[in-house]
UniProtKB/TrEMBL annotation:
It comes from Plantactinospora endophytica. Keywords: Carboxypeptidase, Cell shape, Cell wall biogenesis/degradation, Hydrolase, Membrane, Peptidoglycan synthesis, Protease, Signal, Transmembrane, Transmembrane helix. This is D-alanyl-D-alanine carboxypeptidase. GO terms for molecular function: carboxypeptidase activity. Belongs to the peptidase S11 family. Gene3D superfamilies: DD-peptidase/beta-lactamase superfamily. The lineage of its organism: Bacteria, Bacillati, Actinomycetota, Actinomycetes, Micromonosporales. Residues 35-268 form the Peptidase S11 D-alanyl-D-alanine carboxypeptidase A N-terminal domain. It comes from the Bacteria. Pfam families: Peptidase_S11.
């Protein structure tokens, strides 16, 4: 059977192709000067970055358009996870189970009642398209599932992921759906900034509770991301596949105090599977000097200014975030603002006091 044809994405804006640094505006390979040759992979585009500092260590066509498949679920998590209570119990509806027959699912049943946390685990471990529909419906509020997809696109814009557009919450192929290896890194970094996501991504097995009211048994789920099971220091990530997208992959791992992220699109399974290609690229990244880099993952706060940096050094400030998403640079800016306001109020108080003294004379 012939492979489906990918719909044409919008023309690549040269300014957006340079987001993160001018060296990233290439359809080919970009690596630090003097670095060892990266491993040969079948992925059509890829990127390796430092998850903590945001430094891009290397890539191939990092801003080239690609089809995401189920790594799109990470955008759903970035957009919706911070706004949902993991303990909330949700009842599954018939429309939640409307997705492509035979595609990946966690096994939700109509009328079943599940916690949001169980849904996130089903989304990450089993790539549940059913879970994606429910979570998008919840995150979309009155807009329902369509509102959830709109929230995903709004989050992509906020993150500076200008080459990403979601048409489905699950990553199942939809019209005008695309992303890039660079955008996936921005989205993944936003996900890993949340403790709940890190916990879900690192979970190897989870239990789905029985539904006595509808006579449905409980069962176990196994994380299908082999990086988590077979790569030392793995923190998890997400796998993806459709006939159109081929294999996509996101993975993160920690080694010797460094945490690296790899994203790849358009891979084939021979001679190595997607996660194995990701593992090889992570090995290559860990072998680079700590200060190596060819660009930077831009911060969300800079999204409105185009997110362009002139060189890796220009974006080398370390960004640290706690589970609420507060950043050190944000904190410093806030402290400075408070000091300035305090000084102005002090001056105003002094002037008013002086005026009262002048009136009393």
């Amino acid at each position: 059977m012939a492979r489906p044809t990918s719909p044409a994405p919008p023309p690549l804006d040269p300014a957006k192709a340079a987001v993160g640094g001018p060296a990233l505006a290439t359809a080919g390979l970009v690596t630090p000067s003097g670095a060892a040759e990266p491993p040969k992979v079948t992925a059509t585009s890829w990127l390796v970055a430092d998850l903590t500092s945001g430094a891009v260590l290397g890539g191939c066509g990092p801003h080239e358009y690609g089809v995401p498949a189920s790594v799109q679920k990470l955008l759903l998590a970035a957009a919706v996870l911070p706004h949902l209570d993991p303990k909330q119990v949700v009842e599954v509806t018939e429309s939640d189970l409307d997705f492509e027959p035979g595609s990946s699912a966690m096994g939700l049943v109509r009328g079943g009642r599940y916690t949001v946390e169980t849904l996130w685990l089903g989304l990450i471990l089993n790539s549940g398209n059913d879970a994606a529909n429910v979570l998008a419906r919840l995150g979309g509020g009155t807009g329902g599932q369509a509102g959830g997809v709109a929230a995903m696109n709004a989050e992509a814009a906020r993150l500076g992921a200008h080459q990403t557009h979601a048409a489905t919450p699950s990553g199942l192929d939809g019209p005008g759906q695309y992303t890039s290896a660079y955008d996936l890194a921005l989205i993944s970094r936003a996900c890993f900034a949340h403790a709940d996501f890190r916990r879900y991504a690192a979970t190897k097995t989870a239990e789905v509770p029985a539904q006595p009211a509808i006579n449905a048994k409980g069962y176990s789920m196994l994380n299908d991301n082999q990086l988590l099971h077979r790569y030392p220091g793995a923190l998890g990530g997400k796998t993806g596949y459709t006939d159109l997208a081929r294999h996509s992959f996101v993975g993160a791992a920690e080694r010797n105090g460094r945490t690296l992220l790899v994203t790849l699109l358009g891979a084939e399974t021979q001679p190595a599977r997607g996660w194995e290609q990701g593992a090889a690229l992570l090995d290559w990244g860990f072998g680079l000097p700590a200060d190596a880099g060819v660009g930077q993952l831009v911060a969300p706060a800079r999204a409105d200014s185009g997110n362009q940096v002139s060189s890796p050094a220009a974006g080398a400030t370390r960004v640290r975030s706690d589970d609420r998403g507060f950043h050190i640079d944000w904190l410093l800016g806030t402290v400075g603002t408070i000091m300035l306001v305090g000084a102005l109020l002090g001056l105003l108080f002094y002037q008013r006091r002086a005026a009262r003294r002048q009136v009393g004379r």
